[in-house]
Write a sequence for this structure.
């Protein structure tokens, strides 16, 4: 990591592992990275915002989804750092990565509830995939996070 970015803080964030009735995981393709990379809904925590509230807000802002039930809060945080080519660009250069709290949720709504054409769209398309596949589709710098999440979720749903 370049010296000028070394002392930047990590951004506080949340992530949502959203399962459908078949225990498939919701992933979406980002508008700003339309290659064949997919991610679960995630985002930043506002000042003085409760983490679960932030997760529900981010899910709604990114996907329009509100029909969910919390299965479990993942018991530890995960962190990732941005690769060199994104440092100083993402989050207006204020952070070097993110520390995240993840929440496992069940989608109880109808597929028609999902709408990626939100006020500030982040995703081009979405799909439901097997839990084991989440590490096959994610960008490399988030791979360690997704490996941890995959193991945690397997322990919860099996």
């Amino acid at each position: 990591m370049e010296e000028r970015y070394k002392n930047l803080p990590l951004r506080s964030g949340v992530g949502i592992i959203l399962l459908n009735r078949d225990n498939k995981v919701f992933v979406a393709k980002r508008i700003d990275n339309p290659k064949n990379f997919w991610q679960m809904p995630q985002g930043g925590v506002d000042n003085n915002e409760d983490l679960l509230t932030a997760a529900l807000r981010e899910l709604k802002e990114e996907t329009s989804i509100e029909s969910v039930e919390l299965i479990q809060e993942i018991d530890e945080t995960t962190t990732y750092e941005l690769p060199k080519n994104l440092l100083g660009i993402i989050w207006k250069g204020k952070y070097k990565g993110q520390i995240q709290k993840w929440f496992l949720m069940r989608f109880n709504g109808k597929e028609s509830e999902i709408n990626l054409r939100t006020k500030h769209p982040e995703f081009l398309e979405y799909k439901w995939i097997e839990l084991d596949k989440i590490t096959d589709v994610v960008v490399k710098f988030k791979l360690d996070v997704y490996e941890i999440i995959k193991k945690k979720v397997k322990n919860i749903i099996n």
